[in-house]
Amino acid sequence: MPRLRHAVRDLLARQPTHVPDETLQGVLLILSELVTNAVRHAALLSPTIGVEVALGGGRLRVAVEDGHPYRPKALAAEPTGDHTGGRGLLLVKALTAEAGGVCDVEQTGAGGKVIWAALPLAAA
């Protein structure tokens, strides 16, 4: 995971659009959680994942795609008291909301999913 964070940090440092440090740190944590979630929960049906980082429209968007059809519910609702999973996605949801961004899950045409988060580059 450290290699991914360093690669994304280096990629964004080379872009003409400035990414505030607070936004960068939040995105790196979100990306780590999304990749960890994909590896932990989707690896059996999806041995490969895709990672996307995009700058545009005043936002920084990160997305992780896997081939597993399960759509996690942690981004849609708060867990019940006996809920023991999804804490990483709840962290993603909280970090994204705190930054004034949005996150969601979308199905892919191949039957998998993309979980993404987009944070504004300017303070919310």
TrEMBL record:
The keyword ATP-binding applies. Pfam families: HATPase_c_2. GO terms for molecular function: ATP binding. InterPro entries: Anti-sigma-factor_SerPK, HATPase_C_sf, HATPase_dom. PANTHER family: ANTI-SIGMA-F FACTOR RSBW, ANTI-SIGMA-F FACTOR RSBW-RELATED. This is ATP-binding protein. The keyword ATP-binding applies. CDD domains: HATPase_RsbW-like.
